[in-house]
Amino acid sequence: MATRASSHEGMSSPKGAGGSRKGAVNSAQLKSLILGPWGQSVVEIKEKIKRMDAIIARLKDSIVFVEGKRDKAALMNLGCRDVFTISGNLRQSCDRVASSFMKDEGTGPNAMAPRVVILTDFDRRGGQLAKMARDELEAHSIRADLEMRKKIGSLMRVKFFEDFKRLYDKMIEEGELNG
Predict the structure, then answer these.
(1) Which of 68, 92, 101, 176 is the most buried (most CB within 10 A)?
(2) At 62, which CATH number?
(3) Domain for residue 1, yes or no?
(4) Each residue's pLDDT tens digit in the chain (179 positions)?
(5) Are 36 and 174 in contact (CB under 8 A)?
(6) Which domain holds residue 103?
(7) Are 35 and 53 in contact (CB under 8 A)?
(8) Which residues contact 90 (CB under 8 A, 6 or more apart)?
(9) How many domains does the chain have?
(10) How far from 81 is each of 23, 59, 123, CA to CA, in Å?
(11) Residue 84 maps to a domain
(12) For residues 22 and 47, what is the distance between their CA atoms, to the nearest angstrom?
C-alpha cells in the first residue's frame, strides 16, 4: 500500500509520545515552520533578501578584496567582477588597484577617490587582515569600505565569505518555500 507524503514529513511525534496522533506537530516544530531555519518570519526573510540584493548589486560594481580563492569564487558566482584575493599578497593587490585606477580614472580635480570593499572573514585573522588592508589602501589614497562587511555579517550571519553564496541561496530558497 502506497503512502502519501506529507508536507510535514518527518515531523510526526514518535510512537507512544503522550498519546499524540500521528502527524501532530509539537510547538518547537510549529515555530520552525513559521519562522524557518533562520528563526525569522517570512516577512523578515523577504526583507533581508531585498537588502542583500541591494548589497550584491553594489558589490557587482565595486572592487572587492577577499581573503582567499574560495571567497573569490563565491563572490564571482554572485556576479562580482573585480574581486582580488589578499591573503599573502595584500601589498601587491593594493598596488595593482592603485595603478589601475591611476591609469583608468586619472588624478585630475574631477577624479573621484577610488573605493575598495573589504570582505574578509569574521574570525580573528579576518579582522586583522581587514585592518591591514584598510591601512594599506589609505596609504594609496584609496577609501576602504568596511561597512559593507559589517552589514553582510549582521544580515547573513556568515562567518566565512566562502559560504556567502550558499547561505544567500538558502535564504532565497527559504523565502520562496514559505512565501
Answers:
(1) 101
(2) 3.40.1360.10
(3) no
(4) 444 444 444 444 444 444 455 555 555 554 554 455 556 677 888 888 899 999 999 999 999 999 999 999 999 999 999 999 998 888 898 888 888 777 665 554 445 567 899 999 999 999 999 999 999 999 988 999 999 999 998 888 888 988 888 888 888 887 777 65
(5) yes
(6) 58-178
(7) no
(8) 129, 132, 133, 136
(9) 1
(10) 49, 9, 25
(11) yes
(12) 35
C-alpha cell recorded at residue 65: 578584496
- Assigned domain for 155 exists: yes
Q: What are 35-40's contacts with CB under 8 Å, separation 24+?
A: 36/174, 36/177, 36/178, 37/170, 37/174, 38/171, 38/174
Look at residue 83 and tell me if it is in a domain: yes
159 to each of 2, 108, 149, 164, how far by Cα in Å? 44, 40, 11, 9
Q: Which residues contact 135 (CB under 8 A, 6 or more apart)?
A: none
β-pairing, 115-119 with 82-85? Answer: unpaired
Q: Which of 84, 71, 85 is nearest to 166 (CA)?
A: 71
Positive or negative: CA dihedral 33, 38, 40, 41: negative
Q: Which of 50, 44, 52 is nearest to 165 (CA)?
A: 52
